[in-house]
Known about the structure:
By secondary structure, chain B is mostly helical. Chain B has one domain (81-342): ABC transporter involved in vitamin B12 uptake, BtuC, CATH 1.10.3470. Helices cover 77% and strands 0% of the residues of chain B.
Amino acid sequence: MISKKKNLFLILTLILMLITAACSKETNNVEAINIDNQDAEENYYIFSDALGTEVVLERKPERVVSLLGSYSETWALAGGSLAGVTDDVQKEGRMEITNDIQIVGTVKEPNLEGILSLNPDFVILTPDVDNQVKIAETLKQLNINHAFFKVEEFEDYLNMLNICTDITGRKDLYEENGLKIKKDIDDILYKVEGAKKEELKVLFVRAFSSGAKAKKDDNMTCTMLDNLGTVNIAAQHPSLLEDISIEEIIEEDPDFIFVTTMGDEQKAIDALKTGIGTNPAWNSLSAVENDRYIILPKELFHYKPNAKWGESYRYLAEIIYPEIFN
Amino acid sequence: MKAIDTLQKLSIPKSLINYKKAYNFFVISFLLILLIVLIFTSISVGSSSIEISDIFNAISGNGQLTSEYKIINYVRIPRTLSAIIAGSGLAISGLILQSVLNNALASPTIIGVNSGAGLFTALATAFFPANLSIMPLAAFIGAFLATIAVYYVARKTGASRMTIILAGVAVSSLVGAMTDTVLILFPDTVISRTSFIIGGLSGVTMNRLLMPGIIIFFSLITTFIFSYDLNVLSLGDQTSKSLGLNVDKTRFLFIILSSLLSGSVISFAGLLGFIGLIVPHISRLIVGYDNRILIPTSVLIGSSFALFCDILARTIFAPYEVPVGIIMSFLGSPFFIYLLLNKKRRLMYD
Amino acid sequence: MIKLNNVTSGYMGVNIIKNISLSFEKGKIISIIGKNGCGKTTLLKTASKIIEPYSGDILLNGKNLFDMTSKESAKIISYLPQNRDIPNIRVYDLVMHGRFPYLGFPRIPAYEDKIKVQEALHILEIEKYKNKNIRELSGGQRQKVYIAMVLAQDTDIVFLDEPTTYLDINHQLEILEIVKDLKKMGKTVVMVIHDLNSALTYSDMVCLMDKGEIKIYDKPQVVYESGKIEEIFNVKCHEVGASDKYEKQYIFSFMSA
């Protein structure tokens, strides 16, 4: 009995020692890494990331890992090369995965080991995924440069492209993939402003395999529709639940109904058909009757279009104002 | 005269008692070796392959800042530790609840700990969306408050064992409904919450592990010290009172310990639900119901199991990770059924 | 010796027993009898510190029972409830639990504790079961194990709640003989018992309760002669057969309208 208790105490002290040993080693490591850094004299580039943290790049990054598909594309559009990406790059059809690029897990669960084994000197993250926030903590301890970006609207993309092209030094690409797009968009909006007659009503729906939600704002497509001078009827009827209320829609009778799909596109469309599509009231809406019920392509209206943002605007503008744009 | 008789009789049964002690010693030693093997495996294995020599360099601090070094010290070692801490914490939390509530189905989920943690995390991410590091603290506070609520309700209504279970179910349901409401009102918090609900050990840093680790360590020690009292408690309220145990106070102490354990685990690992329910049963099938041996056994089995599942979680589909909670259910349930069918010993309270 | 002064007690705010005053004399066997719901078990539980009275006090050898710590009182009083879960435990370990009030920190049994447990097992003649799981024993054997636990607890006063109910007749008699042995050791035994005959033949004092009050508390002979048993239970009671071989017994028959 007594010897057994001794055994157990030994085990417990062993575990305690392991914990304290690991902790103390960690602080040693951080110091070691810090000392290296202080020798660097002139920094390459400094900026503030989306969380307001100051990011200091001592030299131009050569091995970059990006943990969100659209950011990977933005970095590539800025002329940068990638060492590691998340698998949504493939799913969203952003770019070819060559042999030099490693997949380091998913957006929601990036593989820290995979990231570290690439010996990155710069990591791009999104603050919307808590696992990425956790990974940033470890990157910070290891003194690996990293930055959070948050892109919701075109301006955010433009800002990010600006910073990225500052880092890569390819301001020509900022012109080509950023400012030129802005000009295209401004042109379109200017034309609309001048030529449109009335404010058209639209409804924007995001459909997925188990249902559909009407979106009010906080969404890039809604922003585009808003900028194009239309009125989003969901914004007129704020209901917290974002569920589609057929009565309100009939009351407003929007001129256009736009749909994007999440997940499997075909399943979402089918769900719409067998759900609200069977409702005769729905089929009596003028938008449905006049063929203005439109499924929008994912690459332009669900995934961040990045350099194709101008195309997205044009796509919508041609549908909404055919008289102006055809 | 009687004393001499009994003295003589003492010498015979000693061997019988030692048989059980030898068995227990064997079990503990075996489990300890198993755990050590798993620890080494966990450190050596991952989505990137690392040479053994590099591993030793990394641990002893010789290697310079190579990626192997970073991976060992910043990914695998913290991960290994978190699995051990989470596994043992949850196992004992469930064991305590099952013992104190005299109910084989008791677990942190039942008494509302997980729901409480879930609600407060949802609230935290809804109202402070930018500050994701607030989540662990919120989880812990929620777990604790839920446990206190359950205990308060139970006390008011007589604190019998059944009342506590019912109170736990009631609190769980109410809190669950509140959480769902928060999610409907603030749907964009969903992203931050998904990994929390499933539970996982990825991305844990030593910082995040320190406070929960210390709390869990001391809670485990305390539980072990009072393990005999836990035995007495299982004789029933009236018998325990007759034997001089302060039943209410003891039960309260253990419930606090249980929520400290599970709350701490939730704060860094999310809602890992399986271990708290099953590991105590598995341990009981192997060493019986005496908490003095059951507690160390459960610590070892819980840690080993969590470690094993975590190793699988990060290597089966590398570089993709399977959430560790899913692996736990897949592995644990069939094994548990197997044990039930093959052992003659029965569960605590059939 | 335990003395109850004007004790009122019950559950959930409801009074079951009211203004009870009595004392249990040292070294005696006291039976508490009465119809279901009269408060026998409530009285037992209150006197043995399992539940706290709403008013009145209980003195244990002059000291207030509820001023003592649980451990202190557990060394003097023990209580064996009627309904128990059957835990999964070895006989030896269960009897060892009787030593709980004496175990310090850490909870490791000392040599003396082990001796007491051995004695208890020996006296109850259950040594051969010591390594068995109590779930494998019959009801009667199990009851003996519990009494061994109470014996190991080494208390002056033992409260038993219906110790013979549900047992086979041979075990019932065996338990009652053990109760007599407990008295021989100098212990005071207070038991609630349904079997009126056993109550009258084995006890030194009989306490008859009805509706939360004590109707009579006296020697068995006096209680029998008072006729209160017949009155309260609505039965006829006859004393029979005192002879060389058998002590007198009591027979009960239905009271026809």
